[in-house]
């Protein structure tokens, strides 16, 4: 009697994942493991067993590509419909797009840097689990910048400030803030990079950017940005999980890793927090229709979710909340106001425009910030009088920059919002300035790295940015006179009013 062959057993998702990733790994025979993976030892991290790396999503290539293709199909359907129906006229106001100009200039190029470096980790991490996870994240990041560029290119047809963003990212003073963050991360070792991006960029920055800000896009009629934001956010959940898995994996492998990881958490919390200064002013000042204040976003996505969740879990491994976290929590009352006031003064040298908050806007700020009426309303009331007298305020000098975060020295002393904070260190007989104890602490731990910082103001003074005058520097930035300055009366503002007047006269057709 012939026995029929048994049908092959269908593998579970976990088994398929193992077969398509880990079972393809091999033990090198003609080179040593150190020669094959030369970059995972010099940071002092000890790994005993790479197979202990857990991958909670367990995506295989076929599942990953089908999943992403479905998301792209939905996204590009929205983009096509929005473009064909002149959807940009459904925004609350063209001033909203100043936030998106900052996004395309400052955030999208970071996605490409992340793509390149996760591809690098996909080759140079010893274990097959983290290598495959890094490969998937590398593909995610290149998809993100592609969808962001495709989304925002529609606005480039009608509004100033969206052009030349890759050129600007490498040169412009305010863009050196996010750029220096990533330059610091990619010039670190592979484990530090995983924590810099997986913990700081993905867990801290992404939650504070993609969730509340993309909700703000929805509130302000920007359907394409909302769609690509939430399409990306489903990827970010994997990225955050990769970062947390990296932290826990390192802590479980050897107790000697604990102080190293603690230092990285301290450092990258502060570096990420300083980048969020740009996001803070976006939420409070650049959205015509508000979705939540920076204070609310920081309380929800950092204080409650991270301090009240993540760090409670990490305490089991001996990890404590980051240094200077109390200062960050205190600054949520003042951060966005300090940053926007600085950007307002320097927007003549930027590819976005600014304007005085309206009376209604200031009432909203007053309702959300206890110190607004005391500290910041007088500044704006004085500026209203200046503008009425024809003296709109633009700063003509160049600000001092922090050596580490590269933000102008605009922050105030902890507990004293009326006194500017300044710290300094001396290294090899040279003086270096910092905006805070957090940035000074980072510098003092590895000064050799930060003495090489490319500080835009220093480079302008040295004649390395196109010339000695503002027009020379702006030409080197590839900025036009219409890209920045005052929003009211700008070409974007005039076009917006004319297009809406035309739509009303034609019955909206």
CATH structural fold name: Ribonucleotide Reductase, subunit A
Estimate the mean pLDDT confidence. 91
Radius of gyration equals 25 Å
- How many helices? The count is 21
**The named CATH superfamily:** Ribonucleotide Reductase, subunit A
Straight-line N-to-C gap: 79 Å
From the helix content, strand content and strand pairing, which structural class follows?
A: mainly alpha
Count of beta strands: 6
Major sheet summary line:
2 strands, parallel
Helix content: 55-70%
Task: Report what the structure shows.
The chain has one domain (57-154, 162-505): Orthogonal Bundle (Ribonucleotide Reductase, subunit A), CATH 1.10.620.20. Helices cover 61% and strands 4% of the residues. It has 21 helices and six strands. The strands form three sheets. It has a two-stranded parallel sheet. A two-stranded antiparallel sheet has the order 2-3. The protein has a two-stranded antiparallel sheet with strand order 4-5. A hairpin with a 2-residue loop joins strand 4 (423-427) and strand 5.
Please name the defining characteristics of this protein:
509 residues; mainly alpha; Ribonucleotide Reductase, subunit A; two-stranded antiparallel ribbon; 21 helices; 4% strand
Topology:
Elements: H1 13-20, H2 33-36, H3 61-84, H4 97-106, H5 108-124, H6 128-156, H7 165-169, H8 176-186, H9 190-219, H10 223-253, H11 257-286, H12 294-314, H13 325-331, H14 335-346, E1 353-354, H15 359-368, H16 372-388, E2 412-413, E3 416-420, E4 423-427, E5 430-434, H17 437-445, H18 447-450, H19 456-461, H20 470-477, E6 485-486, H21 491-505
Parallel strand pairs: 1-6
Antiparallel strand pairs: 2-3, 4-5
Helix pairs in contact: 3-6, 3-10, 5-6, 5-8, 6-10, 9-10, 9-11, 9-12, 11-14
